[in-house]
Amino acid sequence: MTDHDPTEAELTKEQRILRIMQTVLTDVARDTNTPPGMKHPLTDKTIHNIRDCLSLIVERQQELAEALGQEMNMRPRYVDEPKKGDTVVHINVDTLRKNPKS
Fold first, then answer.
1. What DSSP assignment string belongs to 4-33?
2. What is the mean pLDDT of the chain?
3. DSSP secondary structure string for all residues of 32-100
4. Does residue 102 lie in a domain region?
5. CB 50 within 8 A of CB 25
6. How far apart, in whole angstroms, are the C-alpha atoms of residue 91 and residue 83?
7. Which of 56, 65, 86, 89 has a CA between 20 and 30 Å from the CA of residue 96?
8. Nearest 10 degrees: CA dihedral of 66, 68, 74, 77?
9. Are 54 and 20 spatial neighbours (Cβ–Cβ below 8 Å)?
């Protein structure tokens, strides 16, 4: 298994299609989000169908990743967050200071 998420060039055509479809559907959901109490512009049936599509996309992405030996680590990471296998070394600043001469 790899330790990184595959880049766009490393994805198969099907993986790229699924990623784009997932992005479009989540963008539609985000763009049509309404404040509480207001009527949603999409019908309940359409909202349910979007959820079903997203579930199927995730299932297929997991199947493809498993078949290709890729990890599905899609949680957000901070830039300074240590990656798996990284070693964090703590340095005591006092030990780096020069001892004053007597």
1. SPPPGGGS-HHHHHHHHHHHHHHHHHHHT-
2. 82
3. T---TTSPPSS-HHHHHHHHHHHHHHHHHHHHHHHHHT-----S---TTSPPTT-------HHHHSPPP
4. no
5. yes
6. 19
7. 86
8. 130
9. no
Domain that holds residue 82: 8-96
Q: In total, how many domains does the chain have?
A: 1
Per the domain annotation, does 1 fall within a domain?
A: no
As given in the structure block, the two tokens for residue 33 are 């989000």
Weakest-pLDDT range from 5-9, 52-56, 94-98: 5-9
Residue-wise pLDDT for 46-59, tens only, equals 999 999 999 999 99
Q: How far apart are CA 82 and CA 87, in angstroms?
A: 8
Contacts with 101 (C-beta within 8 Å, 6 or more apart), sequence order: none
